[in-house]
Structure formats: C-alpha cells, structure tokens
Amino acid sequence: MKRLIAVIAVVAVLGGLFLYGLFRGPPNRDVPSKLVGRPAPDFSLPLYQRYQKEYGTTFKLSEHKGTPMVINFWASWCNPCFEEAPLLQAAYTRFHDKGVLFLGVQTQDRGHYDAGRKFISRFGYTFPVGMDNDSAIGVNYALFGVPETFFVDRQGTIVYKQVGPVTQSVMTKEIEAILQ
Amino acid sequence: MTTAGPARARRAQLRQPASLQQPAGGAARAVRAEAPAAARADAPTHIRTDLRALVLAVVFGAALAVTAAGASFAAAQSTTGGASPAAAPSAAAAADTSAAASGTAGSGTAVELSDRAYAIASKLRCPVCTAESVADSNAQISAEMRTLIQQQLDAGKSEAQIIHYFRQRYGDWILLDPPKRGVHLLVWLLPVLALLGGVVALVLLVRRWRAAADEVPQADPEALARVRRALARGAAGSDGGDGEEHA
Question: Higher-confidence residue: B1 or A57?
Fold first, then answer.
C-alpha cells in the first residue's frame, strides 16, 4: 500500500509538471539584458534629412558622451511603436531642457524610408531619428524585437532597457535615474 | 536460467503426491479441488509483480515524457523570451522580409551565404521567433544576422569568435542548444538519467520475475494434513459418503 501511494505521488508530481508546462500560458519574454550596466556600444546612425541641419548627416554616439540619452528602437510596421510614439515625443519636450537627448533608431525595417518619414511626420518627432538599414545597430544592442528603449547615463552606461512600449512611469523614473 | 531446472523439478515434486496416489471417490475430488486452489494461491504474487512492472514502466515513461517536454518547453521559453510586442511584429517582419530584401535603399544588399555561415546561423536562435534558428527564420533581423555572420566570416573570424560575439550581446539565450554547463546541464543529463533509471528498473524487475519463478510455493500445513487424511481414508477403502471435510 505504501509503495502504491509512493508511485501515485510520483506520477502525480510528474503529471502535474507536465500539465503545468502545457497550460502555463505564454512564456515570460522578459529576458535580462546583458548590456545593462555596460557601456552603450558606439554606432554611427545616418539621420533623416530633416535632422541633418542640427545634428549632421550621421549621429555618432561617442560624440555625445556626457549627455544622458534615451535611445528608442522602432520600426514602421510595429504597432506598439505607434502606441508609444506620442509618449516619447512628450517626454522629449519635457526633458530636453534638462539636458536629456532622445534618439530614434528605425531598425528591422530595411529600405522602408518612406514609411519611416511618414511615421516621423505623423508623431512630429523633434528629436533626431535615423535609419539602421542593415539592423547592425539593433543586433549590436541585442534587440529581441521592437520597440525597445535604452536609458544611458552621463557616463555612457546603459542603466535600463525597456522591452516593449515604454510607459509614462518608466519613462519618468528612468530619466530621473540617468539625470543623477 | 541456471536455477530454472531445479526449481521446476521442485515444483513437480511438490505436486507429486496428489497426482501419483490417485485417490478414489470423494477424497479424490477433494484433492483435485485442492490442487488448483494451491496454484491460484500463487496468482496474486504474479499479478502484483506485473502490476508493479506496469506502474514502474508508466512512471519511467512519464519521466521521459516530462523530461522531453521540459526540454522542449525550456527551449520554447528561451526562444520566445524577447520583446513582448515583438510577437506580432515578428510575423510582420517575416512578411516584410521579401520587401526589405528587394529594397534598394541603404547600404544593405542580399549576401550569399556560405555553408559555414549557414551552419553557424543554425546554432543561433532567431530573436523574434518561436523555436526557429537564425538560419531558418524569415524574420528580417535573422536575415540581417545571417549577413552579419557572413561578413564576419569574410573578415576572417572563426566560428567560436562569431558565436562569442552574439553571446556577448544576447547571452546564452541566443544559443539554440543550451550550453553544456551549469543549470543547463540538466536538460542534457535528465533524459540520459531517466533512460538509465529505466534500464536499471527493467533489470531489477527481470531479476525479481526470475526469482519469483524460481520460488517454491509453500503448501499450507493444515491443508496438507487434510489432504493426507483424506488420502488415507481413500486408501483404506472407504466408499466415502461425503469424504470432504469442512474446516
């Protein structure tokens, strides 16, 4: 009898694990980034023409060392990018005077310059935006998808990475963190 | 197998009194009634053994299934561990791939992949897909990663260096096969351990079955005495009446 109970217990545990695996729902996508806490990889980003007068034809990250930055990766086909875009522009308007620089990186969107321009015009981005046409910057920043937003402090260290659309509370909290 | 012969001989010996003496009348009927009963007395042991074997087989089968499922779920989990909103975009990205590949703007052009680049890409996980390698995925980021791999190979980098490049950025997550170290070792070892456990259990079961087959059934002394009394009465020429005893 004791043996039967033990066998039933083992089967129940294994069966429970199996059912848990089957029905636990969507997997957790929040993979910790290897880049957080490390220096933001340098890159040169060709900018859209409308920003070239102010920032030059390419935006070189290393030239902005000492400036707290919010680097937002997006694509013209990405619905959540549309959702977060107004918040990004509003945050830039709010924190620009405090010395925070925003940068939009259109990635995983090869050749879709027209769609990019439309996106920028629609949301009236006043911060510089460029095209990562071969997604090399995206891979260098270990993107899992878009949108993703990196918060870089004055020392050039990535202090936080937001996977998915950034929220107002995250934006405020992380900008305050990189301003310190 | 070496003990099977003597064991059978012992069992035959034990049955001998009933079969050889051939008592007549009611006593004979009583004896014939006892013999199958004695045989039936063995049955529960064998049934229990078989049941145990069945349950153990089910347990190890379940263990193997769970291990395999666990491994595949671990793979699925780490495969889809990326940006949550990227699930929908990944489909869009896949749909966009052809358009992007044929795009003329920008510096990127389609790069022909060498077998070596494909082999490396098949070891890396597509960041925006579910359970797909960079080599097999149609997502745009995978196409770009393939190009990057080819470019790095062309630049003279080794496979280890290229994989290291991706691991530095994505961590072990980017590897399609979990690395054979740390907690990941479980994924590799559990199926082997489960298999070994199953083999050991099978060996033990077979040994137990053989031991059970060699075991000489012990007759109940009271029943034996009853049989002997009945046989004695039969041998004494009694014409019986009702020769059966009721204990």
Answer: A57
